[in-house]
Amino acid sequence: NAGVTQTPKFQVLKTGQSMTLQCAQDMNHEYMSWYRQDPGMGLRLIHYSVGAGITDQGEVPNGYNVSRSTTEDFPLRLLSAAPSQTSVYFCASSTREVQAKNIQYFGAGTRLSVL
Amino acid sequence: LAKTTQPISMDSYEGQEVNITCSHNNIATNDYITWYQQFPSQGPRFIIQGYKTKVTNEVASLFIPADRKSSTLSLPRVSLSDTAVYYCLVGPIGTGGFKTIFGAGTRLFVKA
Asked: How far from A63 is each of A31, A111, B13, B47, B94, CA to CA, in Å?
């Protein structure tokens, strides 16, 4: 049982490039989400999903796309990377019942730099 | 969601008890208090949650006074490995959805 797995751990992009951050969980959790964490700040919600085929926007969705074709995977796509998207990205998952208690399980993060 | 206020940083020495206080003056009747811990280069990890009085688990204790306008996370006899950022979250539970908001947290640095 690996929990929440994020790949890659580090990535450097040039402005305008696109890429996909991968997130997979093996706990059969319905809920998955993406956050970004900037230096000295907390986590801000980008997108989330309450089940396969269902996604919705969080606090800072602009510049990011998501899809949820399976329960296990929730990739985050950067369409045209900008320096403002330099950040650490965390994926999290939870069951509906545990999510309702404000409890989520986080991956180790992807550190992204956009030059 | 209730706004929370925590100290930006704290220093401690190994073996000491550390108390981190979170203020949440606008806490609502159905809000719970949840604490997460984030080690360097890792994602946040849930450590404890409570509604009132005292909750204790193998990691920490959570003290909540009767008026619930603040809460204190207590870490007994800290070690170097307790160096982390600690987040206090306040929000309702039982309704589902994404209401978890992480502020800047408290950066605890434990020294030898």
From this structure: 22, 17, 43, 33, 32
